[in-house]
Structures
1.
Amino acid sequence: MKQRIVSGIKPSGDLHIGNYLGAIAQWIKMQDEYEAFLFIADLHAITVPQKPEDLHRRTIEIAKIYLAAGIDPSRVTIFVQSQIHEHAELCWILNSIARIGDLEKMTQFKDKSSGDARETAGVGFFDYPVLMAGDIVMYDADFVPVGDDQVQHIELTRTLGRRFNKRFGDEVFIMPKPLLQESGARIMALDNPDKKMSKSSTSENSYIALSDEPEKARKKIMKAVTDSGTKIIYSDDKPALQNLITIYALFTDKKVSEIEAMYVGKGYAEFKTGLADVVVAFLEGFQEKYASISDDEVLAVLKEGAEKARPLAQQKIKEVKKLMGFVM
Ligand code: TYM
């Protein structure tokens, strides 16, 4: 039997090449070998305010991005999280064993809710990792392919799963492991190599959206900050260049040493032009595929995906509720 992977993306902003290289590119490589459940995490998106029309549009866009990137719906179960209401139910159940102390440790919450922001931070935003834990244990995931900002959430998933199993005396949940790209698990912002590339960034020049006009993406790369020095060398004391070389390597499947060799004796301008060509070629191919997929096609894939995922979720909730003593 194939091992299972589960992962998702929130429809809360424009997807960028960090999401692609950190998450989606891994999924594409894994879809043959693993049984995959990939969803659009719309219940997670609403933990910060979303305009209804944006949530709706982006949910469909993300599913289209999965397909355009090469996720094959005949092998992979692609669905919208909110269409399987068992996700919300399992979150509530896991809330009964999650502790405030567990959630207060979460970096994402700490970063966005320090000082005065704490008073106004949403309860859903605080509880976000519990919902995510439910998404993962619901389908008995062996692995969760994600970028490194999600690893702490997967550790919490294991903690909650273990606590539940111990308390209710059964191995109803299995322990998932995070899977990270060797490099690319953390693509940094183009204008600041200390910050990760993020869809909630207010600075457009910090990320390349998958929907960016290729020539706009080229300009962003040419403007990307670089470090002092002139040589194209991958090194920890040149974090901006390191990030650009990583992006280059991932899009071309070249080794870092090959890229360094290609640019011996050449400067940053030539390197950036080369990288821009690579990114532009990727975006053109990707966007052509994206444009060829209709909304109706996407909706049909999502319907079929929900029909495949739902019986598993229903079965899991049934087992869990029985163990806990609910009258069924
Ligand atoms: P989200 O929507 O913030 O990000 C989607 C995926 O993209 C990865 N990622 C990155 N990878 C490399 N470099 C970056 N700069 C970068 N930025 C984002 C993220 O690590 C993630 O893999 N909580 C999740 C969604 C979710 C989920 C789940 C994931 C909900 N339930 C269950 C896995 C399993 C999130 O907000 O991802």
Note: The chain has a mean pLDDT of 96.
2.
Amino acid sequence: MDDDFPAGMVWLVGAGPGDPELLTRKAERLIRRASVILYDALVGPGILDFAAPGARLEHVGKRSGRHSRDQRTIDRMIVEAALAGERVVRLKGGDPAIFARAGEELGAARAAGIAVRICPGVTAASAAAASLGTSLTLRGLARRLTLVTAHARAGEALTLNWSELADPDATLAIYMGKVVAAQVAENLILAGLNPDTPVAMVENASLPDERVVRTRLDLLGLVADAALGSGPALLLIGSALADSGAAVGARCQVMVAARPPK
Ligand code: SAH
């Protein structure tokens, strides 16, 4: 078999949601072979343990509001390492092709004539569904799964197509939505989504401190503030999230379903 990781090459590798067992075998092999690993804040503990003893590990982590390195710097670090003949793994939480700035990094590598490939990972929405013990799609009821980011620049309002997102036949998986949860709920309700639409939030999906919170759309803002901590959290909205009572994987479950006071 041809060597798929020669010196001077870059792999964008999905580290999955955190649990090292959710790493693909390919990801593990690439991590073991890398001479340089540039990793995100969302790469779970235990995953970097696969790195070779002499590998250079560099944290280029980004968590919203606390960008430690801007994207251009990261692009440049990837290119420089590859041009210096390193085997570069750019390790990202979840899947590298989902809300992970892979477009910029692929573009920067290709513009410099560097070979670059993607190794997929388990995305947060899949990990959250597993924690909930729920299917994100339901035959005839939830025919569409929409992955959407609610990330807005500091001080800017969210500009999403709310009427399109307020689809009762869809499941919405909202990434980076915790701090704007109240705005999301308000806009979806204004756009016609039923206020009692089931909502589930999963924080630190697949990690030991995972937390699952179930509520309804009109309580989402309140509950997100009260029940979530500082970890990454995914918001899931739609009839598929009706409580099946079977969150077997969840380590901590909170349920808030009372009607709000008039
Ligand atoms: N590429 C990643 C997404 C990066 S965007 C993926 O495919 O999963 C960062 C957002 O992903 C976080 O704000 C959160 O909404 C979600 N996220 C990532 N890891 C998570 C986890 N372990 N549990 C819950 N949500 C997570």
Note: The pocket of S-adenosyl-L-homocysteine is lined by residues 17-18, 42, 92-95, 98-100, 123-124, 127-128, 175-176, 202-207, 232-234 (CB under 6 Å).
